[in-house]
Amino acid sequence: MDTVALKSKLDTTTGIENLIKSYLKRHATPFMLIRRDVLERQYNRFRKHLPDVVPYYAIKAHPHPEIVKTFVNLGTSFDVASAAEMKQVLRLGASPSRIIFAHTIKAPDDILFAKKRRVRLMTFDNEPEIYKIAKYYPKAHVLLRIKVANIGSQVELSLKFGADHDQAYFLLRKARSLGLIPMGISFHVGSQSTNVENYLQALEISANIFEECKKNGLPLKIMDIGGGFPIQHFDSEIGVNFERMAIHITKQLRALFDRNVRFIAEPGRFLVGPAGILVTQVVGRAFRNNKNYYYLNDGIYADFSGMVFDHCKYEFKTLRRGQKFLSTLAGPTCDSFDTLSTTEEIPELYVGDVVYVKSIGAYSAASAVPNFNGFPPAKIILV
Ligand SMILES: *Cc1c(COP(=O)(O)O)cnc(C)c1O
Predict the structure, then answer these.
(1) 171 in helix, strand or coil?
(2) Whole-structure pTM value
(3) 79, 187, 271: residue to mutate for ligand 1 pocket, most atoms within 8 A of CB
(4) Cα(39)–Cα(280) distance, rounded to whole angstroms?
(5) To test the ligand 1 pocket, which listed residue (124, 157, 159) has its Cβ within 8 A of the most ligand atoms?
(6) N or C: which end of the chain has fewer CB within 10 A?
(7) Residue ranges, CATH 3.20.20.10, the chain
């Protein structure tokens, strides 16, 4: 296959469908194609439009080794939430100084592992956690995660985590008094945040904390703006404009913080989501409730798990063209819950026909239950 020629046309429907067809010849479905060129493009977009911010890829979005390796080669840093994720990125060549242990509630053994492997930068959001970190990893570098507005975000990430900002100085001073090195502030505006105000407000609150700490002899050096950067899931979707958000964020960073402050971020979805194309096939069809039901060989329990955990909706596409009918798409397991959509307008499909979804690289395979009911998850293929 001439991959260069294929890729040059890849942003058209024909290009994507030709790529899918070429892989169908040699691979059984379900499979998920992950485009390396898109991983690289997203990384470059991030660097270009947020030039002051160093991205730490949040590997929970998709921890596949080949994806992590691609980012290691691009020089990306990494956000991990457990010892296992840390092990994964270290094994694949990330340097410990390029890793943030961005979980505010860490198991003691995981903190010990971070110490052993010299992953020094971590987050916290409460007082007991400071005592724990100080006990297992004296002199660890810590960022305080504060609670910020998640208005309009697809996934709320401030319900379970984040300190109140009026506690910030107290907590950072406490960290220092226990022998830790307070480095700065972090926040997460919620995943798929199309509302730039969330970032702008969170930065304003953070800048006030920086100011308060500086006045009291506790200068901070790192501002971590978290993840949440949105992607387009539907072809016709409007309102997702990373470039425009980035302009506002950059302006805010430059206006509110001293020149010596380092900015980092933890993008997950943005870096990997657009790279994934999930390819499934119809394994059966039935006529019920006055419409066609098509049963696919991948479902809610596996690579469409994002419909539950990530509250994500997807655009289902078919290789077959023709008059469209209101139809239901379901996954393969015996559970009725494993229904993907009851209101799809799609052409009439036959056993063996392909249904595919673009921009499904993040929070899909990563949260799949492998082999529930004996149905295998999609094979991941980097292309
Ligand atoms: C999930 C998560 C991320 C990644 O979020 P995206 O919305 O995918 O960018 C970053 N940081 C933390 C702490 C997270 O929990």
Answers:
(1) helix
(2) 0.96
(3) 79
(4) 22
(5) 157
(6) N
(7) 36-267
Q: Domain 36-267 in CATH: superfamily? A: Alanine racemase (3.20.20.10)
The protein residue with its alpha carbon nearest to ligand 1, atom 13, reads 102
Q: Which residues lie with the beta carbon below 6 Å from any ligand 1 atom?
A: 58, 60-61, 79, 102, 157, 188, 191, 226-229, 266-270
The angle subtended at Cα 313 by Cα 312 and Cα 317, nearest 5°, is 135
CB atoms within 10 A of CB 159: 9
In the chain, CATH 2.40.37.10 sits at 274-382
Distance from residue 226's CA to the centre of ligand 1 (Å): 6
- Measure Cα distances from 243 to 51, 53, 249, 256 in Å: 12, 14, 10, 20
User: Which atom of ligand 1 sits closest to the CA of residue 228?
Assistant: 7
Q: Which atom of ligand 1 is nearest to the CA of 273?
A: 8
CATH 2.40.37.10 applies to domain 274-382: yes
Torsion angle of the four alpha carbons 329, 157, 179, 253, in this order, in degrees rounded to the nearest 10:
110
The DSSP result for 278-294, as a single string, is: EEEEEEEEEEETTEEEE
From 85, 158, 191, the mutation candidate for ligand 1 (largest count of ligand atoms within 8 A of CB) is: 191
Active-site position among 259, 334, 336, 343:
334
Ligand 1 atom with least separation from CA of 191:
7
Residue 93 region by backbone torsions, left for phi larger than 0, else alpha for psi between -120 and 50, else beta:
left
Per-residue pLDDT of the chain (383 residues; tens, 9 = 90+): 455 555 556 789 999 999 999 999 999 999 999 999 999 999 999 999 999 999 999 999 999 999 999 999 999 999 999 999 999 999 999 999 999 999 999 999 999 999 999 999 999 999 999 999 999 999 999 999 999 999 888 888 878 899 999 999 999 999 999 999 999 999 999 999 999 999 999 999 999 999 999 999 999 999 999 999 999 999 998 889 999 999 999 999 999 999 999 999 999 999 999 999 999 999 999 999 999 999 999 999 999 999 999 999 999 999 999 999 999 999 999 999 999 999 999 999 999 999 999 999 999 999 999 899 999 999 999 99
